[in-house]
Amino acid sequence: MPFPDAMWCARAVELFNADPDAPAAASGWPGDVGLVIDGPSPVGVYLAMPVQGRLPAPELVTPEQVIARSPRYFARATETDWKLLITGGLDPIAAIVQKRLVAQGDLSAVVARLQYRGLAERWLALIRPGV
Were both Cys, which of 23, 36, 67, 76 would link to 102 (CB 3.0–4.6 Å)? Predict the structure, then answer.
């Protein structure tokens, strides 16, 4: 599955929801998420707020549509940097400091879930070959 197409995004959410730690990680998440992947054909990904500890299906939209929805959490990077973030080749904090990743929203919810970092590593490892 090529990244960042609809099948890749749907599979990523499916794998997240199948993980036994997902309900606890998603429980109480306070808002929706918008991602923009800048590349030859920019892509927007919109995720509504989790319901009962599960992520809803992602919506692929234009970057402008993501921005128009004013998601509570927003992140934007180039396709190359997203791939590096997903494969562990780029540290998210370093990416923010280096302005390679634009992140907006109250990061306290993210920090509160750092204990679930292994969850992301598990499901991304399953889908990584497509990146």
Answer: 76
Per-residue confidence (pLDDT) for residue 130, from 0 to 100 = 65
Give the tens place of pLDDT for each residue, 52-63. Answer: 989 999 999 999
Whether the pLDDT of residue 131 is over 70: the answer is: no
DSSP the chain: --TTSHHHHHHHHHHHHHSTTHHHHHTT--S-EEEEEESSS-EEEEEPPPBTTBPPPPEEE-HHHHHHT--SEEEEEEHHHHHHHHHTSS-HHHHHHTTSEEEES-THHHHTTGGGHHHHHHHHHHHGGG-
Domains of the chain (ranges, CATH numbers):
6-123 (3.30.1050.10)
CA distance 117 to 123: 10
